[in-house]
Amino acid sequence: xxxxxxxxxxxILFGKDMEFEVGKEVANYGKxxxxxxxxxxxxxxxxxxxxxxxxxxxxIEYIELPGVQPNPRLKLVRKxxxxxxxxxxxxxxxxxxxxxxxxxxxxxxxxKYDGDVWELFEKKAVPKDTIPVGVILTLxxxxxxxxxxxxxxxxxTKVKVSVRSEIVRPAFAILNPETTYSLPxxxxxxxxxxxxxxxxxxxxxxxxxxxxTDRLCEGTLRTLIKYAPIVLKEPNNYAAxxxxxxxxxxxxxxxxxxGREEDWASHKIGHEIxxxxxxxxxxxxxxxxxxxxxxxxxxxxxxFAQFAVRVFDVEADFNNPExxxxxxxxRLEEFFRSIGLPTxxxxxxxxxxxxxxxxxxxxSNSGGDSVGFFVKLYEKDVLxxxxxxxx
Amino acid sequence: xxxxxxxxxxxILFGKDMEFEVGKEVANYGKxxxxxxxxxxxxxxxxxxxxxxxxxxxxIEYIELPGVQPNPRLKLVRKxxxxxxxxxxxxxxxxxxxxxxxxxxxxxxxxKYDGDVWELFEKKAVPKDTIPVGVILTLxxxxxxxxxxxxxxxxxTKVKVSVRSEIVRPAFAILNPETTYSLPxxxxxxxxxxxxxxxxxxxxxxxxxxxxTDRLCEGTLRTLIKYAPIVLKEPNNYAAxxxxxxxxxxxxxxxxxxGREEDWASHKIGHEIxxxxxxxxxxxxxxxxxxxxxxxxxxxxxxFAQFAVRVFDVEADFNNPExxxxxxxxRLEEFFRSIGLPTxxxxxxxxxxxxxxxxxxxxSNSGGDSVGFFVKLYEKDVLxxxxxxxx
Lengths: 391, 391
Hints:
The structure is a homodimer of 391-residue chains. The first copy, chain A, is an alpha/beta fold.
């Protein structure tokens, strides 16, 4: 186990009707907020009205900034920063999925930064402060409601990159599983893939002696595998929606990666697909992860065999660990397909003629000459992984 | 899953040499601290000197209050409160095991309370504020380094009771597994029993649909069962000590009980043994838990069968769930004995002639007419559990 420092100060309010608490939570931070959301879905499910009621009850003034799109855009972030500076905003309230939360986080650090916010994403400076961000989550997926990162797309240059900083962990997060009942199947499935990917990026490590954390990862993965098919069949099943929603937070609040080297290559390889074709984040991950696994498993067959046995109940054949490892990867692909997710470019209908450019951009956007730690992947390796994912 | 609110703001610094960071952490809170510890053990292992060096480097002034005993005493708490008030202390630094941490927490809330601190333990008032508490942990057991509770014994009345409040979560906790190398075997084992008990109090619930959290509990228990024998055989095994130490925090930072009704009867039943005979807390739990399980398992055989199968690898015989459940309890007793812990009064050499009085006091100290939630236990039930634990 490696040394670590961990601080996850986000207050969580989880359960039915918890959105009615938002006014009181906000009041701890001030009287004037930026209300940030996407399109009509929070209005359609009545969440918008409940939030407004709760804010009004506490006398909170709110300025609205809707319009966040999936793969949130720099332009809207800049607009939010402008409003925050002009209006002296006390807190940014993100109501929606991970894109809204990431956009809010970017606005928060941008409003407290002297230069242009994109410099923080280009790693030309590190964020030192933020306007507090509160969250009402409606889509379990990115884990952004408690995480220490935000991902934004520069729509002009088609660059999708992240800022990682303890500064960006939200002040509070409200999670009501009922708000996820009306999610389309594709979003539910893509969310599950995203959550699994957050665990994989931590689980597949060469750091030894991380047994407790391995078990926490495995239990979280098993929960997803059990409940994803249930929520797809019974979208209004509270118990199952609650398991998926809480799993999304546990997967990415940091606790599953403590004391180990994490990887994050697959996220970066997937980001290039989103940047190029605006593909849903979770879909890029169900495509890239099996390919990544096939490319790297030989580097640590034991870990992939453990994954197969403990997560997918593959029989533990110690004479043939490689067979066990490959069966685990096969079952993961099967699982993704069973919940309606593509595992190749072809299945997703994504063009395949720009993979050279994507591999090149993946490395150049990383700021170094490689991505990942489980195995360091150079441009040629990233290209091979795209090729393995073609069909 | 029940609704919940969760906030665990303690900053964790985990790993080798992390105690050298203490001066910097303390400096975030002020310049004058109460340095609270037990006896000579922290000096014997050189920890005391390292802490003092780090404090001096940051120009921190410290007033020492040593002398904390296991089952920390009210008298010393009152003395600490006096010092804090007179000296205008900014932070209380607890260096030691759970007793030192609990004593520091009690001092922290007592110093900010107008009346006598014991009123907070008698539930005559609730704590509203505390002097911040920092921790350097040397004994993985009570989980007090991040928990929301403190337990103190009134040595005059022999009453051992707790305060639960979000206020008492420490500001930071430093955990270096190396500081646990020199622990006597009995303390290591009693610590493991205490950690397991914190999970049991949460795991054995009648709340349904708590699957993710069940799995996190089970993984944590399996880790303890695997590594406890290793640290007893190889006390300087860093990897194994690290697993046990981190397990102690995970077991009691609250995350394993979210969304479910917790029990806590066994702790209260065990507290009466400590209050009467000053028995080590973990030892009271290895005695009481198997007896409690035998007394209550019929109330929810399925849960005890799940425990047996998932934690102790008992074969899943669905035609005979009761047999499965009982085999799980038997294996737990066997495990406790294998790490040198008593599972009865007799094995522990504890007198058995005061169990009537202990049962009476257990209920009267609870402030109601029963303890526990998995099954509500009245005085006659508590007495029966003591009887099941006699030999």
